[in-house]
Amino acid sequence: MQLDATDLKILQQLQTDGRISNQDLADKVFLSPSSCLRRVRALEEAGIIHHYCAVIDATKVGIEVEAFVQVTMRRDVEDWHENFSRALQQWPEVVATYIITGDANYLLKVRARNLKHYSGFVLERLYKTAGVLDIRSNIVLQTLKDTHQIAVELMQDQY
Questions:
Q1: Which of 9, 11, 124, 154 has CA atoms 20 to 30 A from the CA of 36?
Q2: pLDDT tens readout for residues 88-122
Q3: How far apart are CA 1 and CA 8, in angstroms?
Q4: Can you list the alpha helix ranges (DSSP code H) found in the chain?
Q5: How far apart are CA 8 and CA 117, in angstroms?
Q6: Which Pfam family name is an example for this entry (predicted)?
Q7: What is the dihedral of CA 31, 34, 36, 39, to 10 degrees?
Q8: What is the pLDDT of residues 39-85, one digit of tens each?
């Protein structure tokens, strides 16, 4: 799908407020409501708008620990990647996983109620997973920036 300036404005508005009414969105991007709705549906169908969600303040619901964990796997264990990928899907503490370059194979973003919960996750699940050779944890002390938004300026050079 080729994006134009109006599509980029729609994406910017929806990233700021995913619950905005179609009428308000249309007003902000200078379209008729029906034209705006068609464009939003086209962005959804093309997979550019992936899904909508509420962003929850973890500390206000009792999630005190956030950690980034580098995991290095033993390559001599058969199906290590497939087994680890399956295990990740069962762990609610893991909120994001990336295959990375460098010394480790994976980078996990982990959330836990407290340090005891995090410790139990690492010792009872992560270390006991077949193929895990080493883990390196980085506990977040303070978050300075955390956004899911993609800057329109980054998208404009593409189109």
A1: 154
A2: 999 999 999 999 999 999 999 999 999 999 999 99
A3: 12
A4: 5-16, 22-29, 33-45, 80-89, 115-121, 152-156
A5: 42
A6: AsnC_trans_reg
A7: -130
A8: 999 999 999 999 999 889 999 999 999 999 999 999 999 999 999 99
